[in-house]
Amino acid sequence: MITLILIGLLGGLITAVSPCILPVLPVVFLAGGPGGPGGSSGPGAASGPDGRTGQAGQAGAEPRPGPSPGESPGGDVLVAEPVPARQAPNRRPYAVVAGLVLSFSFFTLLGVTIISALGLPDDILRYVGLVMLVLIGLSLVFPPVERLLERPFARIPQRQVNKEGSAFFLGLGLGLLYVPCAGPVLAAITVAGARGELSLGIVALTVSFAVGTALPLLVFALAGRRVAERIGAFRKRARGLRIVAGCLMMALALALAFNVTDAIQRSLPDYTSAAQKKVEDNSVARQKLSGLYDDSNKELSRCADGVDELRSCGQAPPIAGISKWLNTPGGQPVDLKKERGKVVLIDFWTYSCINCQRSLPHIEAWNRAYKSAGLEIIGVHSPEFAFEKNASNVADQSRKLGVTYPVALDNKLTTWDNYRNRFWPAKYLIDAKGTVRYFKFGEGQYAQTENLIRTLLKQANPNVQLPPKTGQKDTQLTKDRTPETYLSNLRISGYVGDPLLQDKPKAYRFASDIPVNSLSLDGTWTAGYQYFTAGDHARLAFTYRAKNANVVLAGKGSVTVLVDGKAVKTIQVEGTPTLHRLVDDGTARTAHLELRFTPGIQAYSFTFG
What pTM was estimated for this model as a whole? Predict the structure, then answer.
Protein backbone atom coordinates (compact mmCIF):
# COMPACT_ATOMS: atom_id res chain seq x y z
CA MET A 1 0.00 0.00 0.00
CA ILE A 2 2.83 2.42 0.84
CA THR A 3 4.46 1.76 -2.55
CA LEU A 4 1.15 2.44 -4.30
CA ILE A 5 0.77 5.73 -2.41
CA LEU A 6 4.30 6.79 -3.36
CA ILE A 7 3.63 5.97 -7.04
CA GLY A 8 0.45 8.05 -6.93
CA LEU A 9 2.18 10.97 -5.17
CA LEU A 10 5.09 11.11 -7.61
CA GLY A 11 2.76 10.64 -10.59
CA GLY A 12 0.67 13.60 -9.40
CA LEU A 13 3.76 15.79 -8.94
CA ILE A 14 4.90 15.07 -12.52
CA THR A 15 1.40 15.66 -13.93
CA ALA A 16 1.16 19.04 -12.19
CA VAL A 17 4.18 20.38 -14.10
CA SER A 18 3.22 18.91 -17.51
CA PRO A 19 1.94 20.98 -20.49
CA CYS A 20 -1.60 19.70 -19.90
CA ILE A 21 -1.87 21.78 -16.71
CA LEU A 22 -1.38 25.10 -18.51
CA PRO A 23 -5.07 26.11 -18.94
CA VAL A 24 -5.70 26.26 -15.18
CA LEU A 25 -2.42 27.94 -14.15
CA PRO A 26 -3.48 31.57 -14.86
CA VAL A 27 -6.64 31.13 -12.79
CA VAL A 28 -4.76 29.48 -9.92
CA PHE A 29 -2.19 32.31 -9.94
CA LEU A 30 -4.85 35.04 -9.98
CA ALA A 31 -6.79 33.34 -7.20
CA GLY A 32 -3.98 34.08 -4.74
CA GLY A 33 -3.89 37.86 -5.17
CA PRO A 34 -6.35 40.72 -4.62
CA GLY A 35 -7.79 40.02 -8.03
CA GLY A 36 -8.91 36.60 -6.91
CA PRO A 37 -12.38 35.64 -5.69
CA GLY A 38 -13.12 36.68 -2.16
CA GLY A 39 -10.39 39.32 -2.25
CA SER A 40 -10.59 42.78 -0.77
CA SER A 41 -12.04 45.48 -2.87
CA GLY A 42 -9.30 47.79 -1.71
CA PRO A 43 -9.77 51.29 -0.35
CA GLY A 44 -13.48 51.21 -0.90
CA ALA A 45 -14.06 48.47 1.70
CA ALA A 46 -16.75 49.26 4.22
CA SER A 47 -15.81 50.31 7.80
CA GLY A 48 -17.80 50.62 10.98
CA PRO A 49 -18.16 53.57 13.40
CA ASP A 50 -15.04 52.49 15.25
CA GLY A 51 -13.01 52.76 12.08
CA ARG A 52 -12.31 49.01 11.81
CA THR A 53 -13.02 47.53 8.45
CA GLY A 54 -16.02 45.27 8.47
CA GLN A 55 -16.54 45.46 12.28
CA ALA A 56 -19.53 47.87 12.30
CA GLY A 57 -18.49 49.37 15.67
CA GLN A 58 -19.24 46.20 17.63
CA ALA A 59 -16.01 46.09 19.63
CA GLY A 60 -16.28 48.21 22.84
CA ALA A 61 -19.75 49.53 21.94
CA GLU A 62 -21.41 48.89 25.30
CA PRO A 63 -20.83 51.59 28.08
CA ARG A 64 -19.55 50.23 31.36
CA PRO A 65 -20.61 51.74 34.73
CA GLY A 66 -18.03 52.94 37.27
CA PRO A 67 -14.34 53.54 36.92
CA SER A 68 -12.29 51.07 35.03
CA PRO A 69 -8.80 50.84 33.63
CA GLY A 70 -8.31 53.84 31.37
CA GLU A 71 -10.84 55.94 33.34
CA SER A 72 -9.89 58.43 36.17
CA PRO A 73 -11.66 58.25 39.58
CA GLY A 74 -13.26 61.62 38.83
CA GLY A 75 -14.92 60.20 35.80
CA ASP A 76 -12.71 61.73 33.17
CA VAL A 77 -12.28 59.33 30.29
CA LEU A 78 -8.74 58.83 29.11
CA VAL A 79 -8.81 58.48 25.32
CA ALA A 80 -6.56 55.66 24.16
CA GLU A 81 -4.93 55.36 20.77
CA PRO A 82 -7.10 53.32 18.39
CA VAL A 83 -5.82 49.79 17.90
CA PRO A 84 -5.68 48.91 14.21
CA ALA A 85 -7.68 45.87 13.22
CA ARG A 86 -5.58 42.80 12.56
CA GLN A 87 -5.76 41.85 8.91
CA ALA A 88 -7.06 38.34 8.42
CA PRO A 89 -4.65 36.00 6.62
CA ASN A 90 -5.26 35.41 2.93
CA ARG A 91 -6.16 31.74 2.62
CA ARG A 92 -7.55 31.94 -0.91
CA PRO A 93 -4.69 29.87 -2.45
CA TYR A 94 -5.46 27.01 -0.08
CA ALA A 95 -9.20 27.29 -0.74
CA VAL A 96 -8.98 27.19 -4.54
CA VAL A 97 -6.51 24.27 -4.58
CA ALA A 98 -8.56 22.36 -1.99
CA GLY A 99 -11.70 22.80 -4.10
CA LEU A 100 -9.89 21.66 -7.26
CA VAL A 101 -8.45 18.54 -5.64
CA LEU A 102 -11.73 17.62 -3.94
CA SER A 103 -13.91 17.89 -7.05
CA PHE A 104 -11.32 16.27 -9.36
CA SER A 105 -10.85 13.28 -7.04
CA PHE A 106 -14.53 12.83 -6.24
CA PHE A 107 -15.86 13.08 -9.77
CA THR A 108 -13.01 11.08 -11.34
CA LEU A 109 -13.89 8.15 -9.08
CA LEU A 110 -17.66 8.55 -8.75
CA GLY A 111 -18.71 10.90 -11.56
CA VAL A 112 -19.56 8.16 -14.06
CA THR A 113 -21.57 6.22 -11.46
CA ILE A 114 -23.54 9.29 -10.41
CA ILE A 115 -24.24 10.40 -13.97
CA SER A 116 -25.40 6.92 -14.96
CA ALA A 117 -27.64 6.58 -11.88
CA LEU A 118 -29.31 9.93 -12.52
CA GLY A 119 -29.58 9.44 -16.29
CA LEU A 120 -27.72 12.70 -17.00
CA PRO A 121 -25.83 13.54 -20.21
CA ASP A 122 -22.23 12.30 -20.27
CA ASP A 123 -20.77 15.80 -20.64
CA ILE A 124 -22.88 17.44 -17.92
CA LEU A 125 -19.94 17.79 -15.51
CA ARG A 126 -17.88 19.67 -18.09
CA TYR A 127 -20.70 22.14 -18.68
CA VAL A 128 -21.24 22.56 -14.95
CA GLY A 129 -17.55 23.40 -14.58
CA LEU A 130 -17.74 25.96 -17.40
CA VAL A 131 -20.80 27.61 -15.83
CA MET A 132 -19.04 27.75 -12.45
CA LEU A 133 -16.00 29.40 -14.03
CA VAL A 134 -18.23 31.99 -15.74
CA LEU A 135 -20.03 32.70 -12.44
CA ILE A 136 -16.71 33.29 -10.70
CA GLY A 137 -15.70 35.66 -13.48
CA LEU A 138 -18.98 37.54 -13.11
CA SER A 139 -18.52 37.71 -9.34
CA LEU A 140 -15.17 39.45 -9.76
CA VAL A 141 -16.71 42.04 -12.05
CA PHE A 142 -20.01 42.45 -10.17
CA PRO A 143 -19.76 42.32 -6.32
CA PRO A 144 -23.47 41.38 -5.84
CA VAL A 145 -22.78 38.11 -7.69
CA GLU A 146 -19.87 37.40 -5.34
CA ARG A 147 -22.08 37.95 -2.30
CA LEU A 148 -24.57 35.54 -3.81
CA LEU A 149 -21.88 32.87 -4.24
CA GLU A 150 -20.68 33.37 -0.64
CA ARG A 151 -24.17 33.01 0.80
CA PRO A 152 -23.94 29.19 1.23
CA PHE A 153 -20.92 29.79 3.48
CA ALA A 154 -22.58 32.56 5.52
CA ARG A 155 -23.64 30.23 8.35
CA ILE A 156 -20.04 29.30 9.06
CA PRO A 157 -19.04 31.42 12.11
CA GLN A 158 -15.51 32.37 11.04
CA ARG A 159 -15.66 35.45 8.86
CA GLN A 160 -12.49 34.51 7.00
CA VAL A 161 -13.97 31.15 6.01
CA ASN A 162 -16.92 33.04 4.59
CA LYS A 163 -14.54 35.18 2.53
CA GLU A 164 -12.88 32.10 1.06
CA GLY A 165 -16.20 30.62 -0.06
CA SER A 166 -16.05 31.85 -3.63
CA ALA A 167 -12.38 30.79 -3.92
CA PHE A 168 -13.36 27.26 -2.88
CA PHE A 169 -16.26 27.44 -5.36
CA LEU A 170 -13.76 28.39 -8.08
CA GLY A 171 -11.63 25.36 -7.19
CA LEU A 172 -14.64 23.07 -7.46
CA GLY A 173 -15.31 24.38 -10.97
CA LEU A 174 -11.68 24.02 -12.06
CA GLY A 175 -11.67 20.43 -10.81
CA LEU A 176 -14.41 19.60 -13.31
CA LEU A 177 -12.42 21.18 -16.15
CA TYR A 178 -9.02 19.83 -15.12
CA VAL A 179 -7.76 17.47 -17.86
CA PRO A 180 -4.25 16.34 -16.88
CA CYS A 181 -1.96 14.35 -19.16
CA ALA A 182 -2.84 10.72 -18.63
CA GLY A 183 -0.29 8.11 -17.63
CA PRO A 184 -0.71 4.66 -16.10
CA VAL A 185 -1.66 6.06 -12.66
CA LEU A 186 -4.47 8.28 -13.93
CA ALA A 187 -5.51 5.53 -16.36
CA ALA A 188 -5.89 3.09 -13.44
CA ILE A 189 -7.95 5.63 -11.48
CA THR A 190 -10.13 6.50 -14.47
CA VAL A 191 -10.83 2.89 -15.42
CA ALA A 192 -11.72 1.94 -11.84
CA GLY A 193 -14.06 4.92 -11.55
CA ALA A 194 -15.70 4.14 -14.89
CA ARG A 195 -16.37 0.55 -13.83
CA GLY A 196 -17.46 1.47 -10.30
CA GLU A 197 -14.91 -0.94 -8.82
CA LEU A 198 -13.52 1.05 -5.89
CA SER A 199 -11.05 -0.69 -3.62
CA LEU A 200 -8.90 0.62 -0.80
CA GLY A 201 -5.93 0.57 -3.16
CA ILE A 202 -7.72 2.68 -5.79
CA VAL A 203 -8.88 5.22 -3.17
CA ALA A 204 -5.34 5.46 -1.76
CA LEU A 205 -3.93 5.88 -5.27
CA THR A 206 -6.47 8.61 -6.08
CA VAL A 207 -5.88 10.57 -2.88
CA SER A 208 -2.09 10.39 -3.20
CA PHE A 209 -2.27 11.41 -6.88
CA ALA A 210 -4.51 14.36 -5.98
CA VAL A 211 -2.15 15.47 -3.20
CA GLY A 212 0.83 15.21 -5.54
CA THR A 213 -1.02 17.32 -8.11
CA ALA A 214 -2.02 19.88 -5.48
CA LEU A 215 1.46 20.68 -4.18
CA PRO A 216 2.86 22.44 -7.32
CA LEU A 217 -0.49 24.16 -7.87
CA LEU A 218 -0.45 25.44 -4.29
CA VAL A 219 3.08 26.78 -4.77
CA PHE A 220 1.87 28.62 -7.87
CA ALA A 221 -1.14 30.08 -6.04
CA LEU A 222 1.02 31.17 -3.09
CA ALA A 223 3.37 32.84 -5.55
CA GLY A 224 0.42 34.85 -6.86
CA ARG A 225 -0.44 35.88 -3.31
CA ARG A 226 3.16 36.87 -2.62
CA VAL A 227 3.38 39.02 -5.74
CA ALA A 228 0.14 40.78 -4.81
CA GLU A 229 1.32 41.47 -1.26
CA ARG A 230 4.75 42.74 -2.30
CA ILE A 231 3.76 45.07 -5.12
CA GLY A 232 1.89 48.13 -3.95
CA ALA A 233 0.26 48.70 -7.33
CA PHE A 234 -1.77 45.52 -6.79
CA ARG A 235 -3.21 46.87 -3.54
CA LYS A 236 -3.95 50.33 -4.92
CA ARG A 237 -5.68 48.96 -8.00
CA ALA A 238 -7.37 45.95 -6.45
CA ARG A 239 -10.79 46.74 -7.90
CA GLY A 240 -9.44 47.11 -11.43
CA LEU A 241 -7.44 43.92 -11.11
CA ARG A 242 -10.54 42.02 -10.00
CA ILE A 243 -12.37 43.16 -13.13
CA VAL A 244 -9.44 42.11 -15.34
CA ALA A 245 -9.24 38.74 -13.57
CA GLY A 246 -12.97 38.20 -14.02
CA CYS A 247 -12.76 38.91 -17.74
CA LEU A 248 -9.80 36.53 -18.07
CA MET A 249 -11.69 33.74 -16.32
CA MET A 250 -14.70 34.17 -18.59
CA ALA A 251 -12.36 34.19 -21.60
CA LEU A 252 -10.77 30.96 -20.33
CA ALA A 253 -14.21 29.36 -20.02
CA LEU A 254 -14.92 30.30 -23.64
CA ALA A 255 -11.54 28.95 -24.77
CA LEU A 256 -12.10 25.66 -22.93
CA ALA A 257 -15.62 25.34 -24.35
CA PHE A 258 -14.28 25.54 -27.92
CA ASN A 259 -11.04 23.59 -27.26
CA VAL A 260 -8.89 26.62 -28.14
CA THR A 261 -6.39 25.71 -25.41
CA ASP A 262 -5.64 22.39 -27.15
CA ALA A 263 -3.62 24.14 -29.87
CA ILE A 264 -1.39 25.77 -27.25
CA GLN A 265 -0.79 22.47 -25.50
CA ARG A 266 -0.03 20.63 -28.75
CA SER A 267 2.60 23.22 -29.66
CA LEU A 268 4.61 22.44 -26.52
CA PRO A 269 6.92 19.43 -26.26
CA ASP A 270 5.93 16.69 -23.83
CA TYR A 271 8.85 17.43 -21.52
CA THR A 272 7.56 15.25 -18.66
CA SER A 273 7.08 12.02 -20.62
CA ALA A 274 10.49 10.55 -19.73
CA ALA A 275 10.02 11.22 -16.01
CA GLN A 276 6.47 9.90 -16.13
CA LYS A 277 7.58 6.60 -17.68
CA LYS A 278 10.35 6.17 -15.09
CA VAL A 279 7.90 6.66 -12.22
CA GLU A 280 4.68 5.12 -13.55
CA ASP A 281 5.88 2.46 -16.01
CA ASN A 282 8.80 0.80 -14.26
CA SER A 283 8.63 -2.85 -13.22
CA VAL A 284 7.44 -2.09 -9.66
CA ALA A 285 4.74 0.34 -10.82
CA ARG A 286 3.49 -2.08 -13.49
CA GLN A 287 3.20 -4.83 -10.89
CA LYS A 288 1.33 -2.63 -8.41
CA LEU A 289 -1.02 -1.06 -10.95
CA SER A 290 -1.71 -4.34 -12.76
CA GLY A 291 -2.45 -5.92 -9.39
CA LEU A 292 -5.54 -3.73 -9.18
CA TYR A 293 -7.15 -5.84 -11.94
CA ASP A 294 -7.41 -9.46 -13.02
CA ASP A 295 -4.91 -11.62 -14.91
CA SER A 296 -6.75 -12.00 -18.21
CA ASN A 297 -4.76 -11.95 -21.46
CA LYS A 298 -1.44 -12.18 -19.64
CA GLU A 299 0.23 -13.35 -22.88
CA LEU A 300 0.40 -9.70 -23.89
CA SER A 301 3.17 -9.25 -21.30
CA ARG A 302 5.48 -11.17 -23.65
CA CYS A 303 5.75 -7.93 -25.61
CA ALA A 304 7.67 -4.97 -24.20
CA ASP A 305 6.92 -1.33 -24.88
CA GLY A 306 8.58 -0.01 -28.01
CA VAL A 307 11.18 -2.75 -28.57
CA ASP A 308 12.58 -2.74 -32.09
CA GLU A 309 11.52 -6.28 -32.93
CA LEU A 310 8.44 -8.38 -33.57
CA ARG A 311 7.44 -10.83 -30.84
CA SER A 312 4.61 -13.34 -30.43
CA CYS A 313 2.35 -12.00 -27.69
CA GLY A 314 -0.76 -14.17 -27.99
CA GLN A 315 -3.95 -13.88 -29.97
CA ALA A 316 -5.37 -10.39 -30.27
CA PRO A 317 -8.22 -9.89 -27.77
CA PRO A 318 -11.58 -8.99 -29.31
CA ILE A 319 -12.82 -5.45 -29.80
CA ALA A 320 -15.85 -5.71 -27.52
CA GLY A 321 -18.32 -3.55 -25.59
CA ILE A 322 -18.40 -0.90 -28.32
CA SER A 323 -21.28 1.58 -28.07
CA LYS A 324 -20.92 2.97 -31.60
CA TRP A 325 -18.69 2.81 -34.68
CA LEU A 326 -17.61 5.82 -36.74
CA ASN A 327 -16.22 5.92 -40.30
CA THR A 328 -17.57 2.47 -41.26
CA PRO A 329 -20.28 1.73 -43.87
CA GLY A 330 -23.62 2.14 -42.12
CA GLY A 331 -21.87 2.25 -38.75
CA GLN A 332 -21.20 -1.51 -38.96
CA PRO A 333 -18.64 -2.98 -36.52
CA VAL A 334 -15.21 -4.25 -37.57
CA ASP A 335 -14.63 -7.89 -36.60
CA LEU A 336 -10.97 -8.77 -36.06
CA LYS A 337 -11.60 -12.37 -37.10
CA LYS A 338 -12.76 -11.16 -40.50
CA GLU A 339 -9.55 -9.12 -40.85
CA ARG A 340 -7.35 -12.25 -40.94
CA GLY A 341 -4.96 -11.93 -43.86
CA LYS A 342 -4.52 -8.22 -43.15
CA VAL A 343 -2.15 -6.41 -40.81
CA VAL A 344 -4.11 -4.49 -38.16
CA LEU A 345 -2.98 -1.48 -36.16
CA ILE A 346 -5.13 -0.68 -33.11
CA ASP A 347 -4.66 2.81 -31.69
CA PHE A 348 -6.10 3.58 -28.24
CA TRP A 349 -6.80 7.29 -27.97
CA THR A 350 -9.17 9.90 -26.60
CA TYR A 351 -9.85 13.24 -28.22
CA SER A 352 -8.93 15.59 -25.34
CA CYS A 353 -5.53 13.89 -24.87
CA ILE A 354 -2.87 16.21 -26.32
CA ASN A 355 -0.39 13.34 -26.73
CA CYS A 356 -3.02 11.49 -28.78
CA GLN A 357 -3.66 14.54 -30.96
CA ARG A 358 0.03 14.85 -31.76
CA SER A 359 0.24 11.20 -32.86
CA LEU A 360 -2.83 11.20 -35.13
CA PRO A 361 -1.19 12.78 -38.24
CA HIS A 362 1.37 9.93 -38.30
CA ILE A 363 -1.34 7.28 -38.06
CA GLU A 364 -3.44 8.94 -40.74
CA ALA A 365 -0.37 9.06 -43.01
CA TRP A 366 0.10 5.28 -42.57
CA ASN A 367 -3.57 4.76 -43.37
CA ARG A 368 -3.22 6.65 -46.65
CA ALA A 369 0.04 4.96 -47.60
CA TYR A 370 -0.61 1.31 -46.68
CA LYS A 371 -4.36 0.69 -46.73
CA SER A 372 -4.23 -0.58 -50.29
CA ALA A 373 -1.30 -2.83 -49.33
CA GLY A 374 -3.30 -4.63 -46.63
CA LEU A 375 -3.13 -2.44 -43.51
CA GLU A 376 -6.31 -1.91 -41.49
CA ILE A 377 -6.19 0.80 -38.83
CA ILE A 378 -8.79 0.87 -36.05
CA GLY A 379 -8.98 3.71 -33.57
CA VAL A 380 -10.37 2.63 -30.18
CA HIS A 381 -11.65 5.75 -28.46
CA SER A 382 -11.46 4.94 -24.74
CA PRO A 383 -12.66 8.03 -22.83
CA GLU A 384 -10.60 9.48 -20.01
CA PHE A 385 -13.48 11.70 -18.84
CA ALA A 386 -17.27 11.44 -18.94
CA PHE A 387 -17.76 14.21 -21.53
CA GLU A 388 -15.66 12.19 -23.99
CA LYS A 389 -18.36 9.51 -24.11
CA ASN A 390 -20.68 11.73 -26.11
CA ALA A 391 -20.79 10.21 -29.60
CA SER A 392 -21.44 13.53 -31.35
CA ASN A 393 -18.45 15.10 -29.57
CA VAL A 394 -16.20 12.23 -30.69
CA ALA A 395 -17.50 12.39 -34.26
CA ASP A 396 -16.99 16.16 -34.42
CA GLN A 397 -13.47 16.04 -32.99
CA SER A 398 -12.51 13.06 -35.19
CA ARG A 399 -13.52 15.09 -38.22
CA LYS A 400 -11.59 18.16 -37.05
CA LEU A 401 -8.50 16.06 -36.28
CA GLY A 402 -8.58 14.46 -39.74
CA VAL A 403 -9.35 10.88 -38.64
CA THR A 404 -10.79 8.91 -41.57
CA TYR A 405 -10.22 5.27 -40.48
CA PRO A 406 -12.78 3.31 -38.38
CA VAL A 407 -13.21 4.48 -34.78
CA ALA A 408 -14.77 2.30 -32.05
CA LEU A 409 -16.33 4.10 -29.07
CA ASP A 410 -15.12 2.04 -26.11
CA ASN A 411 -17.22 3.91 -23.52
CA LYS A 412 -17.30 1.02 -21.05
CA LEU A 413 -13.52 0.49 -21.46
CA THR A 414 -14.11 -3.18 -22.26
CA THR A 415 -11.58 -3.31 -25.10
CA TRP A 416 -9.16 -1.23 -23.03
CA ASP A 417 -9.33 -3.94 -20.36
CA ASN A 418 -9.05 -6.74 -22.93
CA TYR A 419 -5.69 -5.34 -24.03
CA ARG A 420 -4.53 -4.60 -20.46
CA ASN A 421 -3.82 -1.09 -21.68
CA ARG A 422 -2.39 1.63 -19.45
CA PHE A 423 -1.64 4.57 -21.77
CA TRP A 424 -3.18 7.16 -24.08
CA PRO A 425 -2.08 6.85 -26.85
CA ALA A 426 -1.10 3.19 -27.31
CA LYS A 427 -0.56 1.31 -30.57
CA TYR A 428 -0.84 -2.50 -31.00
CA LEU A 429 0.32 -4.27 -34.17
CA ILE A 430 -1.48 -7.51 -35.11
CA ASP A 431 -0.21 -9.78 -37.89
CA ALA A 432 -2.22 -11.49 -40.63
CA LYS A 433 -2.80 -14.53 -38.37
CA GLY A 434 -4.34 -12.46 -35.59
CA THR A 435 -1.34 -12.47 -33.24
CA VAL A 436 -0.21 -9.35 -31.36
CA ARG A 437 3.41 -8.74 -32.42
CA TYR A 438 4.30 -5.29 -31.04
CA PHE A 439 2.99 -2.39 -29.00
CA LYS A 440 4.11 1.18 -28.34
CA PHE A 441 2.90 3.34 -25.45
CA GLY A 442 2.89 7.11 -25.80
CA GLU A 443 4.33 9.26 -28.55
CA GLY A 444 7.45 8.75 -30.63
CA GLN A 445 9.30 5.93 -32.42
CA TYR A 446 7.16 6.49 -35.51
CA ALA A 447 9.87 5.43 -37.99
CA GLN A 448 10.44 2.20 -36.04
CA THR A 449 6.71 1.44 -35.93
CA GLU A 450 6.41 2.09 -39.66
CA ASN A 451 9.32 -0.28 -40.40
CA LEU A 452 7.56 -3.03 -38.44
CA ILE A 453 4.29 -2.35 -40.30
CA ARG A 454 6.14 -2.82 -43.59
CA THR A 455 7.76 -6.03 -42.33
CA LEU A 456 4.38 -7.51 -41.39
CA LEU A 457 2.85 -6.48 -44.72
CA LYS A 458 5.69 -8.26 -46.55
CA GLN A 459 5.22 -11.36 -44.39
CA ALA A 460 1.49 -11.37 -45.17
CA ASN A 461 2.04 -10.91 -48.90
CA PRO A 462 5.63 -11.28 -50.19
CA ASN A 463 4.58 -9.93 -53.59
CA VAL A 464 3.06 -6.69 -52.28
CA GLN A 465 4.48 -3.47 -53.74
CA LEU A 466 4.92 -1.09 -50.83
CA PRO A 467 4.95 2.70 -51.33
CA PRO A 468 7.84 4.86 -50.10
CA LYS A 469 8.08 5.33 -46.36
CA THR A 470 5.98 8.20 -45.12
CA GLY A 471 8.62 9.39 -42.69
CA GLN A 472 11.63 9.21 -45.03
CA LYS A 473 12.65 10.52 -48.41
CA ASP A 474 11.66 8.53 -51.49
CA THR A 475 15.05 7.25 -52.64
CA GLN A 476 14.07 7.51 -56.31
CA LEU A 477 13.10 11.14 -55.89
CA THR A 478 15.72 12.25 -53.40
CA LYS A 479 17.64 14.28 -55.96
CA ASP A 480 14.55 15.71 -57.59
CA ARG A 481 11.84 16.07 -54.96
CA THR A 482 11.62 19.12 -52.71
CA PRO A 483 12.29 18.06 -49.10
CA GLU A 484 9.91 18.58 -46.19
CA THR A 485 10.08 22.19 -45.03
CA TYR A 486 9.14 23.41 -41.55
CA LEU A 487 7.76 26.91 -41.06
CA SER A 488 9.78 27.51 -37.92
CA ASN A 489 12.07 30.44 -37.25
CA LEU A 490 14.76 28.00 -36.04
CA ARG A 491 14.19 25.04 -38.38
CA ILE A 492 13.24 26.61 -41.72
CA SER A 493 15.35 25.73 -44.76
CA GLY A 494 15.37 27.19 -48.25
CA TYR A 495 14.03 30.58 -47.17
CA VAL A 496 14.89 33.63 -49.31
CA GLY A 497 13.88 37.22 -48.74
CA ASP A 498 13.81 39.71 -45.86
CA PRO A 499 15.38 38.47 -42.61
CA LEU A 500 12.90 36.76 -40.33
CA LEU A 501 11.83 38.57 -37.15
CA GLN A 502 11.23 36.08 -34.36
CA ASP A 503 7.79 35.97 -32.71
CA LYS A 504 6.75 39.48 -33.78
CA PRO A 505 4.64 40.69 -36.74
CA LYS A 506 6.65 42.06 -39.65
CA ALA A 507 5.87 43.17 -43.20
CA TYR A 508 7.82 41.15 -45.79
CA ARG A 509 8.41 41.47 -49.55
CA PHE A 510 8.85 38.58 -51.99
CA ALA A 511 12.43 37.96 -53.07
CA SER A 512 13.15 38.91 -56.67
CA ASP A 513 14.25 35.34 -57.42
CA ILE A 514 12.87 32.18 -55.74
CA PRO A 515 14.87 29.15 -56.94
CA VAL A 516 13.75 25.52 -56.76
CA ASN A 517 13.28 24.20 -53.19
CA SER A 518 13.00 27.74 -51.85
CA LEU A 519 10.18 29.84 -50.38
CA SER A 520 9.59 33.51 -49.70
CA LEU A 521 7.07 35.65 -47.76
CA ASP A 522 5.04 38.72 -48.64
CA GLY A 523 2.71 40.80 -46.48
CA THR A 524 2.56 40.61 -42.68
CA TRP A 525 3.75 37.44 -40.94
CA THR A 526 4.67 36.38 -37.40
CA ALA A 527 7.47 33.81 -37.55
CA GLY A 528 7.27 31.51 -34.51
CA TYR A 529 9.10 28.36 -33.50
CA GLN A 530 6.17 26.00 -34.16
CA TYR A 531 4.40 27.80 -37.01
CA PHE A 532 4.08 31.04 -38.98
CA THR A 533 0.92 33.12 -38.44
CA ALA A 534 -0.53 35.07 -41.35
CA GLY A 535 -1.38 38.75 -40.92
CA ASP A 536 -2.73 41.35 -43.35
CA HIS A 537 -2.18 40.61 -47.05
CA ALA A 538 -0.10 37.54 -46.18
CA ARG A 539 1.25 35.53 -49.11
CA LEU A 540 3.76 32.70 -49.43
CA ALA A 541 5.57 31.63 -52.60
CA PHE A 542 7.32 28.26 -53.00
CA THR A 543 9.15 26.90 -56.04
CA TYR A 544 9.09 23.12 -55.72
CA ARG A 545 9.62 19.90 -57.65
CA ALA A 546 7.30 16.96 -56.84
CA LYS A 547 4.12 15.20 -57.92
CA ASN A 548 2.11 16.58 -55.02
CA ALA A 549 2.43 19.33 -52.45
CA ASN A 550 0.82 19.46 -48.99
CA VAL A 551 0.68 21.91 -46.12
CA VAL A 552 -0.38 21.63 -42.47
CA LEU A 553 -2.71 24.49 -41.46
CA ALA A 554 -4.70 25.51 -38.40
CA GLY A 555 -6.91 28.38 -37.28
CA LYS A 556 -9.95 29.73 -39.08
CA GLY A 557 -10.14 31.32 -42.51
CA SER A 558 -9.28 30.51 -46.11
CA VAL A 559 -6.22 29.98 -48.29
CA THR A 560 -6.25 30.57 -52.05
CA VAL A 561 -3.88 28.31 -53.99
CA LEU A 562 -2.21 29.48 -57.20
CA VAL A 563 0.05 27.28 -59.35
CA ASP A 564 2.18 29.03 -61.97
CA GLY A 565 0.03 32.14 -61.52
CA LYS A 566 -3.31 30.38 -62.01
CA ALA A 567 -5.81 29.99 -59.15
CA VAL A 568 -6.65 26.29 -58.73
CA LYS A 569 -8.54 26.05 -55.44
CA THR A 570 -9.51 27.73 -52.18
CA ILE A 571 -9.05 25.82 -48.93
CA GLN A 572 -11.35 26.48 -45.97
CA VAL A 573 -9.42 26.14 -42.71
CA GLU A 574 -11.05 25.64 -39.33
CA GLY A 575 -9.78 24.11 -36.10
CA THR A 576 -6.73 22.07 -35.20
CA PRO A 577 -3.63 21.43 -37.40
CA THR A 578 -4.69 19.43 -40.44
CA LEU A 579 -2.82 18.30 -43.56
CA HIS A 580 -4.23 19.82 -46.77
CA ARG A 581 -3.40 18.66 -50.31
CA LEU A 582 -2.42 21.66 -52.47
CA VAL A 583 -1.34 20.03 -55.73
CA ASP A 584 -1.70 16.47 -57.03
CA ASP A 585 -0.14 15.86 -60.45
CA GLY A 586 0.44 12.59 -62.26
CA THR A 587 4.19 13.08 -62.60
CA ALA A 588 6.86 15.08 -60.80
CA ARG A 589 7.38 18.56 -62.20
CA THR A 590 8.81 21.94 -61.24
CA ALA A 591 6.16 24.55 -60.43
CA HIS A 592 5.72 27.88 -58.70
CA LEU A 593 3.23 27.75 -55.85
CA GLU A 594 1.63 30.82 -54.28
CA LEU A 595 -0.67 30.79 -51.26
CA ARG A 596 -2.80 33.77 -50.21
CA PHE A 597 -3.94 33.67 -46.57
CA THR A 598 -6.64 35.39 -44.58
CA PRO A 599 -5.31 36.78 -41.28
CA GLY A 600 -4.96 34.36 -38.38
CA ILE A 601 -4.15 31.18 -40.32
CA GLN A 602 -1.25 29.17 -38.85
CA ALA A 603 1.05 27.35 -41.30
CA TYR A 604 3.21 24.56 -39.85
CA SER A 605 5.04 22.67 -42.60
CA PHE A 606 5.14 21.63 -46.26
CA THR A 607 5.57 18.05 -47.46
CA PHE A 608 6.04 16.82 -51.00
CA GLY A 609 5.52 13.48 -52.71
Answer: 0.46
